[in-house]
Amino acid sequence: MANIKYDLVGHDSESADNDEWPRTVKQKGASRRYIWLLATLFISALGNIFLLYKLNQQTKLGPISRTHYGEKVPVFPLLARFSLLKSYVPTAGLVNDLDVPFAWDTPFSSGDYAEVNKLWYEDEQSDKGIISLDNDYAESLGLPKSQPFAWDSKKKSIYITNGHHNLHCLRNIYISLDQFRNNQSQTIEWQHVLHCLGALRDDIMCNADDTPRFTEKGGRRPGEGQVRKCRDWSKLQEFVQEHAGCFKYIHPENHTMETIERVKYCPNDSPYLPLIRKYFGLPDDWLPWPVEGSK
Ligand SMILES: *[C@@H]1O[C@H](CO)[C@@H](O)[C@H](O)[C@H]1NC(C)=O
Ligand SMILES: *[C@@H]1O[C@H](CO)[C@@H](O)[C@H](O)[C@H]1NC(C)=O
């Protein structure tokens, strides 16, 4: 069979009967070249679309809606010299894509005092905001160098997200006001409360939020129920969980406690647990969570 086929398409066959065969082969060759040309054009078009998309992303999302840090950094470090390929590299990659209405009253501001109080006192998130980032990654974000992560000190450093720091500050202010309201002595120093107020004010200025809130006659509750675009806090939570800093502020009243005692709280499936157990002489089945003696 194979032999017969070879004879038919062979170039040395001069017979009139076989005349069409070489021509068919030639045509096939031409259409193959055509397909290659098309494929090349297609790939090149795809590449252009990708570049345009990158450029567009840069201008469309802009610095306000996307997590970024100061300077533009290269998308592909190897191509750093081509400025077109620079873009904001996100940390958690958050964009304002979540619809959330403005609310005059929130569970943190209205309702039963005991309930509101409980929410504020239990809303301690600053521990979670303490994260460990790969040094290379931190550098690619243009972040300043930071203190080393105890369990991988050559490769990782410790940072705290600004969002978590803000919540921590807000909670401090609430506690201070609550103590004032109840004629209790202040447990948070005035200077710390002032620092928090200043930091939150700066953050508001930094965000320069230009969302117009609608108004009604009498000017009461502007924007109530109006939907705005927010970043999704739950996505930030996922990000910080994936980059655990292993910090828990245990025994805050103990000012002489070594920091290392507070950084053994990695997730229960963390690869650093054997190291931590060894360092503290803990048994092989020791797990950080739930934390002993905490509610
Ligand atoms: C706080 O003290 C003031 C003055 O001594 C008093 O009038 C007020 O009722 C007290 N408030 C509370 C919540 O105990
Ligand atoms: C504080 O913590 C250290 C361990 O880092 C411990 O040795 C010390 O007894 C603690 N002090 C108090 C007052 O609990």
Question: Mind explaining what this structure looks like?
Answer:
This protein has nine helices and six strands. 11% of the residues are buried. With 295 residues, the chain is mostly helical. The chain has a domain at 98-207 and 223-280. A two-stranded antiparallel sheet has the order 1-2. Strands 3-6 form a two-stranded antiparallel ribbon. The protein has a two-stranded antiparallel sheet with strand order 4-5. The site of one 2-acetamido-2-deoxy-beta-D-glucopyranose has 5 residues, from loops. One 2-acetamido-2-deoxy-beta-D-glucopyranose binds next to loops.
Bound molecules: 2-acetamido-2-deoxy-beta-D-glucopyranose
By secondary-structure content and strand pairing, the structural class works out as: mainly alpha
Strand order in the largest sheet: 1-2
Rounded to the nearest angstrom, the distance between the terminal CA atoms is 82 Å
What is the 3D form? flat
Please give the share of residues in helix.
40-55%
Summarize this, please?
This protein is 44% helix and 7% strand. The protein has helices at residues 2-9, 20-65, 113-122, 126-129, 135-140, 162-181, 190-207, 233-242, 273-280, and strands spanning 73-74, 86-87, 98-101, 130-134, 156-160, 227-230.
Keyword list:
7% strand; UstYa-like; disordered N terminus; two-stranded antiparallel ribbon; binds 2-acetamido-2-deoxy-beta-D-glucopyranose; mainly alpha; transmembrane helix; 295 residues; flat; membrane
SSE map:
Elements: H1 2-9, H2 20-65, E1 73-74, E2 86-87, E3 98-101, H3 113-122, H4 126-129, E4 130-134, H5 135-140, E5 156-160, H6 162-181, H7 190-207, E6 227-230, H8 233-242, H9 273-280
Antiparallel strand pairs: 1-2, 3-6, 4-5
The chain binds 2-acetamido-2-deoxy-beta-D-glucopyranose (NAG) (2 copies).
Residues 182-183 line the site of one 2-acetamido-2-deoxy-beta-D-glucopyranose.
